[in-house]
Specification:
Blueprint: E1 7-9, H1 11-22, H2 27-31, H3 38-41, E2 47-49, H4 50-64, H5 69-87, H6 90-96
Antiparallel strand pairs: 1-2
Helix pairs in contact: 1-4, 1-5
């Protein structure tokens, strides 16, 4: 069973919202009913719950009507991974190899 109350950095939410905005979605529409403020989204030290991130994903998919945006978001993540792996210790790299829970929300 998934624990959607676990907390995480806002970095993936920021990435997803920026991609959605580049497709014409407003930041307010991305954040609607998520409990994530613009201040939190732009604060690299802020944490959000997985359930909040899933609501953001739902907003993006509902607004844009196209789950293929997940491929574009994944492309942004993949291009930054080689540099990240170069500076992370091995246990952190192994943890990064596990797909994040939000990926599964695009395949409902």
């Amino acid at each position: 069973m998934n624990d959607w109350s676990e907390t995480r950095s806002t970095s993936s939410a920021l990435l997803m919202s920026n991609v959605a905005i580049s497709h014409g979605m407003s930041k307010q529409a991305c954040l609607k009913n998520t409990g994530i403020s613009e201040v939190m989204l732009n604060d690299s030290n802020a944490e959000i719950k997985a359930s909040q991130e899933l609501k953001l994903i739902e907003n993006i998919v509902d607004e844009l009507g196209d789950t293929s945006i997940a491929l574009e978001i994944g492309g942004h993540v993949i291009t930054s991974l080689p540099m990240a792996f170069g500076v992370l210790p091995l246990p952190a790299v192994q943890l990064c190899a596990q797909p994040p829970k939000w990926v599964y929300a695009f395949y409902r």
